[in-house]
Design a protein that fits this description.
By secondary structure, the protein is of the alpha/beta class. The chain folds into two domains: 134 residues, Leucine Dehydrogenase, chain A, domain 1 (Rossmann fold), CATH 3.40.50.10860; 143 residues, NAD(P)-binding Rossmann-like Domain (Rossmann fold). 39% of the residues lie in helices and 20% in strands. It is built from eleven helices and twelve strands. The strands form two sheets. It has a six-stranded mixed beta sheet with strand order 2-1-3-5-6-4, with helices on both faces. Helix 10 packs across helix 11. It is globular. The model has no long low-confidence stretch (mean pLDDT 94).
Length: 286
């Protein structure tokens, strides 16, 4: 009998992560044994990741705040990671001659996009507001720029405007063929216009805090999504949106399961059934 695949997730904080549960569901579904843990990164991510792979690790997920460090660590990347400039999944590759290299991928954007489609988010012709300009935003923007999706405009609002501007400049430099109008601003500069979709890509919900967004913007939105998730399926952000009358409000569990499935497929070559896994994970949490 083969040994379980040694996998983990790196981040800080990390105790809240349900990635081990998600991947245990994938393992049971596919019949592929995994040993999936959590590692809190308090010093160097490079040192922690190197030690993990030297101890028999074959793959890992990476969350806040380590995604840029993961991009710097890997030897080569998938196209998704190259576009995003951040890595949330690493796979150890061993060549026939024994050479070991690390492959970096970014599954966040594809995970979010498939969940938005599943939830029937009003994307075509939409004006989207993304709150935050960290690694998560870099990961989720590229799939939204696909011309076939038909999004009209994306605004990235962040306390440090230059970070949002950097993301936009990088996306424009890639010449993805997108016709989406991109703009960046600070919270103080955010115009009181109608955003049909609002995505919270900050880690504020983890702290029980809300973004500095005026209530009138939420009241005009048709759909709101928090990349953060909780076992209860609600966050301080989603509760605030519901209280202000946003018709469709969701936490990020669907994105988590979707991006995790893509990671699992990278490591094993087998794609789990995302819908079945999401239902099972939500049931176990609830």
């Amino acid at each position: 009998m083969s040994q379980p695949l040694k996998l983990t997730v790196f981040g800080n904080p990390i105790a809240h992560s349900i990635s081990p549960l998600v991947h245990s569901v994938f393992a049971a579904q596919t019949g592929i044994a995994v040993d999936y843990g959590r590692i809190k990164v308090e010093g160097s991510f490079k040192d922690a990741a190197t030690a993990f792979f030297e101890a028999g690790g074959v793959g890992c997920n990476v969350t806040v705040p380590c995604k840029p460090d993961a991009f710097a660590l890997v030897d080569h990347c998938t196209k998704s990671a190259e576009i995003a400039q951040v890595v949330n999944t690493i796979k150890l590759e061993v060549a026939a001659d024994g050479t070991r290299t690390l492959l970096g991928d970014n599954t966040d954007g594809r995970g979010l996009f498939t969940d938005l489609v599943r939830l029937q988010a009003p994307l075509a012709g939409s004006n989207i507001l993304i709150i935050g300009a960290g690694g998560a935003t870099r990961g989720i923007v590229p799939p939204l720029l696909d011309p076939e999706v038909g999004i009209a405009r994306i605004t990235i609002v962040n306390r440090t405007v230059s970070k949002a501007q950097d993301i936009i400049a990088d996306m424009q430099a890639l010449q993805l063929g997108s016709k989406v109008e991109l703009s960046a601003c600070s919270f103080a500069e955010l115009k009181p216009e109608a955003y049909s979709v609002i995505i919270n890509a900050t880690s504020l919900s983890l702290k029980g805090e809300l973004p500095e967004i005026k209530d009138e913007l939420y009241r005009q939105a048709r759909f709101a999504y928090d990349l953060f998730y909780t076992p209860q399926g609600t966050t301080v952000f989603t509760e605030h949106c519901k209280a202000l009358g946003v018709p469709a409000v969701y936490d990020g569990l669907g994105m988590l399961v979707g991006q995790a499935a893509l990671s699992f497929a990278l490591w094993t070559g087998v794609m789990p059934d995302v819908g079945a896994a999401l239902a099972q994970v939500r049931a176990q949490l609830g």
